[in-house]
Fold this sequence. Notes:
The chain is α+β, with helices and mostly antiparallel strands and 312 residues long. The chain folds into three domains: 82 residues, Arc Repressor Mutant, subunit A, CATH 1.10.10; 81 residues, SH3 type barrels; 91 residues, no CATH class. Helix 1 packs across helix 3 and helix 2 crosses helix 3. It is globular. The chain starts with 5 loop residues before the first helix and ends in a 6-residue tail after the last helix. The relative contact order is 0.07. The C terminus is likely disordered.
Amino acid sequence: MPPIPRAQLERLSYIDFRLYFLGQLRRSDLVARFGTGPAGATRDIAQYREAAPGNLEFDGTRKLYLPSASFKPLFEHAPQRVLSALSQGFGQGAAEDLSPLLRCEIPSALSVPRMSVLAPVTRAIHCGKALRLVYHSLSGEPGERELVPFALVDSGVRWHVRAFDRKSAEFRDFVLTRIESPVVLEHGEVGRHETAEHDVQWSRIVELELVPHPSHPRPDVIRLDYDMPDGVLRIKVRAANAGYMLRRWNVDCSPGLRLRGPEYALGLADPLVLYGAANALLAPGYRPPVAAASADKLQGSRQRDDTPESSR
Length: 312
């Protein structure tokens, strides 16, 4: 496809999306989505037909376009964006009247950050500024802190902000719902040591190999669930987030994959790859190598003590 303006590229992608995932397209769909008017919608459809001549057919009876039998998507559609659009609608503006494109059911979010907290945090991240706030920690009374935030993190259960904490002089995760009264320090300076490039846990990438859990009765189905034709799902994750991801998906990270239960469909092939990851203890069954070795030694000692004298 020759270079075209981004706005028109978005309209062509929308045409491709509706044909591919909804199976039909009307000019009114483009008018409603982009406000272009019937003539503009006709031109966009004509350009799409020129770029992908075998992709759509016109149904004169119903006055709509259908994907052809030989349809091949013109664009690469990211799965998460597709599912988001289908379940929540298109658009970014607050004035958008968004509605799902299909009937969808999404689990309720039990922990949602307040917009009055989220907005200062995201402004500080975007502008490279520090924040002054009150934080409610589980380990003590609420206290004032200064943070230098640089990323939002979705653990799958709640949202965190990754930041340099000037109180402890460490990089840590802070739960957004535990933040109160955040104020962006517009005129303060941020030191180089407070930036993401100096966060070792954030910069370190851990390569994980996940396999069907050996106790699962249908490993063939698990391979389908997680698209692992060779029996291994290989993913890369930041060391700072590894524990969140493994806990979210109930990946057994115990030595020898010893956990049992229907919730454990996956196992971590080599738990040693988590060594040094700060939040690895959140991963189901994970124990640092020294602790795991001590536990195995203790278990072996108990087994010897329980062995009948005649069989020793």
